[in-house]
Amino acid sequence: MSASVAVVGKIIWVLGVVAWYVIRYPHARRAKRVRVVSDRRSLPEAIGLGAALLGMSVIPAIYVATGIPESADYPARAWAVAIGAILYIAAMWVFRRTHKELGKNWSITLEIRDNHKLICNGPYAHVRHPMYTSFMLMALGQAFLLSNWVVGLAGLIGFAVLFFLRVDKEERMMLDVFGQEYRAYMDRTKRIIPYIY
């Protein structure tokens, strides 16, 4: 039973990654057509993106494909896979809504695009960084879906490195561009968890 539950968890994780790509791809193509007017890319940001890619894509993909590191496996539980599936569905919903609201303002790196606007609708009405909210939900979902200590921790660590290396720089950039309008927005919203943080 545990082995078949583990397979279901792996399948759901793969479907989640495919959904992530399907959601992101058209927005990435569209964003390339909009001129960048301010680029704040940095080494810490590249490290954060690399850590997230490693922890939330590369390490779990190797595990799903090969079972390595098998020594860190623990018995898969149906309730854990169900929680992981719910977290992944929630992550994809937030991820899609975030991209839809951002439209041409979206960028994978810290950039300001031509005619950039401050978005305060949809998930942005509740948190300033719902994209990170979706990544946090994905990392938690990964920890429940894939019954391996290394893979579960890799996603959480990858998310944490990205978040803590980038979020302060992102907020400084938004303050530089939008000034008091962004300050007021900060006063009425939380960072990634509504009403909490």
Automatic annotation (TrEMBL):
What is the name of this protein? Protein-S-isoprenylcysteine O-methyltransferase
Its BP terms in the Gene Ontology are: methylation
Q: What's the EC number here?
A: 2.1.1.100
A Gene Ontology molecular-function term? protein C-terminal S-isoprenylcysteine carboxyl O-methyltransferase activity
Transmembrane regions listed in the UniProt entry: 6-23, 43-64, 76-95, 143-165
The entry's localization annotation reads: Membrane
Chief localisation class: membrane
Q: Does the keyword Transmembrane apply?
A: yes
Q: Which top-rank group of organisms is this from?
A: Bacteria
For whether the record's keyword set contains Transmembrane, the answer is yes
GO CC annotation, single? membrane
Keywords assigned by UniProt, alphabetized = Membrane, Methyltransferase, Transferase, Transmembrane, Transmembrane helix
The annotated topology with respect to the bilayer is: Multi-pass membrane protein
> Origin organism of this chain?
Ferirhizobium litorale
